[in-house]
Structure formats: structure tokens, C-alpha cells
Amino acid sequence: MSMKKQADAAARRVSGFSKGILLFLCFALLFTACARETPGDADETSEEPLLTRVSCKTAYFSSDSLNPYFCTTSLNASLMPMVYAGLFSIQRDGTAEPDVAASYTESENEVKIVLPTTGVFSDGSAVTANDVVYSFEKAKSSAVYAQQMSGIAEAKADSPLEVTFSFSDKLPDRLFLLTFPIVKNQTAETADARPIGTGQYRWTESEDETVLTLCAGESESQIETVRLIPVSDSSNLMYTLQTGEIDFFVSDLFGGRLGRTGGQMVDIPTSNLIFLGINSDSYALSFPPVRQALSFAVNRDEIAQSVYSGHAVAADLPIRPDTRAYSQNATSDQQTAVDYAAAQHFLENEGYTTVDPQTGTRSGDKGSLRMSLLVNNESEYRLEVANCVQDSLARVGVSVTIHSLPYDQYVQTLTEGGYDLYIGEIKLPNNGSLSAFFGGSVSYGISDQSKSYLAWQEVLSGTVALPAFFTTFTQDLPFLPLAFRNDVLVSSDDIEVPDEAILFGSALSQLDRWRVQEEETTEEGTTASLW
């Protein structure tokens, strides 16, 4: 991208500031709710139709913070892009575009950011280097962004409008990590604080409700305000939308199943990897051919299409297959299709040649292929993934017993090593770092002497390229990638969300592209729906 395009992208919020104020004054009286009121007649001499303003409603957990660096629930975190933008945003094609940043330069271990000179914060002030460093420090210690920031060693203010980020590894796509929310210095100190942000909307103080109001420079958005409706249970969100209490929400597909009827659904691609964890200390699973057999037997397409109702993409590598990074780093012979014949071949070559006629379980000189599978029972989706894995492995003679536990017991069992397999999910950093598996938060059962572990350390040091690592990974298989799931934006039928409004991992950062259906009262007293 040219530097001019970078500057143009960063200046989107601050361009046309005076025009935005004039439009705001002209249209302030046109404010309606999602249960629409018809605006007055437009001036017939106007070249452009007046933009009808509306108000919409969405849900949040009042028990959780609305400070991006203190919130812990995915529902509240999904709202943050409306109020807070990052230095960069990730497009659906897997490219990073400047957002708050005006321009940047990259060197071997650093990225230097130049900030815009005009106002970007919702209070009209300019973002400074101190604001960015402050936001970085808050992100490093937050529940939502800490994993994302793990590869960044330091942020340093070089001048009032220049910041240098230093990185602790040699991984590519460093700009993908600079997407954390930028807030004004010292405004995000407590969980109750509502930091001043850089997004399209700002917090509006009210005694009896929480409201987001369109910033003055965002004159093209049809949605003037977003009212936040408190909820206590995410399982009722679909019902809450169907009854008209809210107009949209973002689901992370964790708890109860998302209904198939009522409301429109738009997928938001994410870096959330669903995987089958493997305990390499379990005797049978210590042999790579057995792990290879399991990989061929697991029906990833069924998981993506049936369990997640198409809101996921099957993956046999820990890299999302519909991204630019996959085409650059994956080997050409990767496939996700199940192959039971290949799985049986690997098991037979490993000596598991006897099949019990009653149970169908394979055995041999190394013992019987009976395994335990651990899963968190708080997610209906993951329970279904476990059932799918159990059924798939049974087809090749591997008997699986599922142990479904509450989260705390699930983690305790993982820590103690009392399992053979487990169903896990992790939100990988946007640059695809796998450090969490190799010495990090989900390294359960993976030996620090395994080929993949050692190869990953060489990736971090820059001595092994990613394509070579993935070749080692497919031979070693310290864990089995199953699918990358999407978030799902669910909205009422009178809201249209075009594809270009959806970014990677963000559904609500571009509400200016949404269209809301209006109702016009005719002379006969009937109503007609218009876009």
C-alpha cells in the first residue's frame, strides 16, 4: 500500500470534520428508534436525500466492565470496536490497513508508527505517543488482549507523534498485533471507567441507561445512537432479539446452540482454533503413526458444517485455510477430508491388527486402543465436537470415553495429566503465533523435546521458515487442529449488514456501512418498508 493510501485510511475519521458538524445539526431532529418514525419531507431542491437517523439496541452484561482493558466476557468485548479503534485493522482478505496510524515503517525487530496530527479521539483531541504507550501497557495486562500482545516486547514514545514497537520474535505479520484499542492516557484506570476512544461512537452519560452516540465526524452513519440493554444470560440473547428488546448481538458460539430461525446471521472470521489436544505421555499416543491415524479419522468437515452449522472452517493445520497466510505457508498437499482407510493403515502398521468383534476396538502387542476424552461441559458446541470425535475414531477401532466436566475441574484434570485427549479452543494472536502450544497456556501434553516444539523455537529465532515448520508439524502432530470457528453477528430483519462492513475479528467497527429499514406511512394509513 502507498503511503498516501495509508494516510487516507488513517484520516477517515478526521476528514470532513466541519461538514460532519453541519450534517449533524441538520439531521439531529430526524433521530428515531429502530421502531422507526418517519422524518419530515426533504427539501425538493436538495441534490441528495436526507439521511434518516435511527437508534438501535444491543445487549451487554452489566456484571462485566465496559472498559476494554477490564472486561472479561466475549459479549462486552464484542462491543468495544464501536468505541475504540486500533492502530491497524485486519481486512477480511487477511491484510492489515492503517486505522489510527497515519503511516509506518518496518525494520528487522521494530515497527515505527507515525500518528496523525489532527483529532482522532472522540473528544476531538489528537492521539499522542503517550496515549499509544499507555494503551499498550493496559493491553499487555488485560484478560482479552494479553495473549495477542505476547510477542511485543516494548512500546516507546520517540516524539509526541511517533511510537516504536520492539518485538521479541521473528514472526511475520507484526502489524496484525497492533490492533489493540487506543484510549486516551489515564482514562482506563478502573473497571468502572469509560475510556475516551478512537472509534465511531462515544459513551454518553445517563442515569438510567448506557448509550453510545455517534461522534461528530462520523456523519455518514445512519445509526445515531446504540442503547445498551443489560442481560444476565447469553443463552437468552436470541429470544431477546426476537421479542424486539435488542436489534443485534454478537455470539461466540460457546454456550447453548444458536437458533436457526429468527434474525439474520453474518459470519465474522476469527483466529479461534478448535483443536484436539493430545497427551504425549499416554503410551499409544506417544507414537506419531497413531496420532497420524487419529488425524485421518477425525471428520473435520462434519465439525465445521454440522456441529457449528457452517459457522466454522475445517482445518488440519493451525493456520486458517481461507487466509493469505495459509496460501503463503501451507504445503500444497494439505486436505481436511476424512480418510478412514488411511487411518486403519497407520494403525495396522503400528501393530494394532486385532479387532474385537463385539466392541470393534483395535488392539495389538502394544495394548488396546481405549482412550479418554476430556471436554468442558459448559459449552454445548464443544460437547458435540467431542461426540463427533468419538464417533469418528470408533470407525477405525479407537474406543473413546468422554469425560465432560465443569471448567475448573476440566483445567485441573488437564494440569494433572489425567486424560488421553481433550477438546480445546484458543484465540490465536492475529499473526498466527503458536507459542501458546509450545510452552504457553495450552501446552498440556506436549513434550518440550518434541520435533514441533523444537522447530517452533527455531521459527521464533528466525532460523526456520514457517512452511518448513508446518512440514514438521504434519509429521509430528503434537495436537490436532479441527476447525477455526467464526463469531456470528445476529441482527433483526430490518438491518442489512453488507460484507464490506465485516473485518477480521470485528463485526461492529463499521456501523456506518449498515442500512436500517424504515417504515413510511402512506395516505391510506398503511405502512411500507423501505431501504
**Helix content bin:** 10-25%
Rg over alpha carbons: 25 Å
Q: Which CATH architecture of the largest domain would you pick?
A: 3-Layer(aba) Sandwich
**What general outline do the C-alpha atoms trace?**
globular
User: Would you tell me the structural class of the helices and strands?
Assistant: alpha+beta
Q: Average pLDDT, to the nearest integer?
A: 88
CATH superfamily of the largest domain: Periplasmic binding protein-like II
Q: Biggest β-sheet, characterized?
A: 7 strands, mixed
Give an account of the 3D structure.
There is one protein chain. Helix content is 23%, strand content 24%. The protein is of the alpha+beta class. It has two domains: 3-247 and 492-522, D-Maltodextrin-Binding Protein, domain 2; 269-486, Dipeptide-binding Protein, domain 3 (Roll). The longest helix is centred in the C-terminal third of the chain and has 15 residues, at 380-394. The protein is globular. The relative contact order is 0.15.
Give a brief description.
By secondary structure, the chain is of the alpha+beta class. The chain contains 13 helices and 24 strands. The relative contact order is 0.15.
Question: How is the secondary structure organized here?
Answer:
Blueprint: H1 3-10, H2 17-27, E1 54-61, H3 74-79, E2 88-90, E3 96-98, E4 103-106, E5 110-114, H4 129-140, E6 152-159, E7 162-167, E8 201-204, E9 210-214, E10 223-231, H5 237-242, E11 248-251, E12 264-278, H6 288-297, H7 300-307, E13 312-314, H8 324-329, H9 340-349, E14 354-355, E15 362-364, E16 367-368, E17 370-376, H10 380-394, E18 399-405, H11 407-416, E19 421-427, H12 451-461, H13 466-476, E20 479-491, E21 495-496, E22 515-516, E23 518-521, E24 527-530
Parallel strand pairs: 1-10, 17-18, 17-19
Antiparallel strand pairs: 2-3, 4-5, 5-7, 6-7, 8-9, 9-10, 11-20, 12-19, 12-20, 13-20, 14-15, 15-16, 21-22, 23-24
Helix pairs in contact: 6-9, 12-13
